[in-house]
Specification:
CATH topology of the largest domain: Metallo-beta-lactamase, Chain A
Strand content: 15-25%
Bound molecules: zinc ion
CATH class of the largest domain: Alpha Beta
Order of helices and strands: EHEEEEHEHHEHHHHEEEEHEEHHHEE
Structural class: alpha/beta
Number of helices: 12
CATH superfamily of the largest domain: Ribonuclease Z/Hydroxyacylglutathione hydrolase-like
CATH architecture of the largest domain: 4-Layer Sandwich
Largest sheet: 7 strands, mixed
Amino acid sequence: MQVTGTRQREAWRRAEFPPVEKVTGGVWSVPVPIVGNPLRYVLTYLIEHDAGFVMIDPGWNHPDSWQALTAGMGECEIPLAAVTAVLVTHVHPDHHGQSGKVRELSGAWVGMHPAEDAFLELRGSTLMLRDNVAAYLRWCGAPPSHLDELAASRQHIAQAEPMVRADRLVEHGETIDVPGLRLRTVWTPGHTPGHLCFHDETHDVLLTGDHILPRITPNVSSYDMESNPLKDYLASLDALRGIQPREVLPAHEYRFTDLDSRLDDLAGHHRERLAEASEILGGAAPGGLTAWQVATGVTWSRPWSELASFQRQAAIGEVLSHLRYLQSQELAAESDRDGVGLWTPAGGPTFGG
Ligand SMILES: [Zn+2]
């Protein structure tokens, strides 16, 4: 992998805000701050077509973010009214938060994958979600105090404005309906169920959202008792092989090239995590371990005791996605004891060992 967004990386190293940049003729990148988040900013992209501009990932909904987006567009001499389509790679609020405001002021339509729109629909019914989360956390083996801590830390999110639903649903392999631009979708589930990458074939650049980032691995978490997002994620890495775009345009950090080597790194990271989870299960007592117990044994960037409740929640989700993947490969087994999931090795060889 080679970094092409060198000014962006310089800014990252100095903990400064990166510049607005013309990526290539007809493509601009505007950094939009994410208030209070270590990722610091989303890169909003604007791509010109024959009748205006497509905007991808308008950013976090906050007055400072709005100011940065509109000032950045001003620098590019792109009026808001010229935006005809807003596309989102996925509906996390740091990407999709401002879509409603852009739509309202420009008249643009908002497009996303159907699975993201379905998630927004579900998000509306918070009471149901809380019951589900409680049952899920019990099943993961989390202590009851964790749910209360988590609820307290999420209070501010519950009060946030609801995000807008899709005007148009965009499926895998579609060419976006804008004149004079070949913008094709690649469905890349894993980070979220409906994550999309956009291959701008006209400029030969690939917009990868959170699916592929140059420095960090995106969170791939299982937040229910059934899904296998890591299996999806690994398949979604393969879905990008062979495209070999001239440049990769991620939603955070900085631009880079040589996509395939980055795909190898990301797959390798998950293989290591799978081996570690497999080893922890292998060393467990015959009764098995809960996902929470496995998570406390995994190496994180900080000791488990120092992680905040939302970080522990992300950690459980990550561990569970790896356990679920091991199970799908018949390398781990799960059994239910009074609503608590217990994981054991499935008797086969230890993963990677
Ligand atoms: Zn995200």
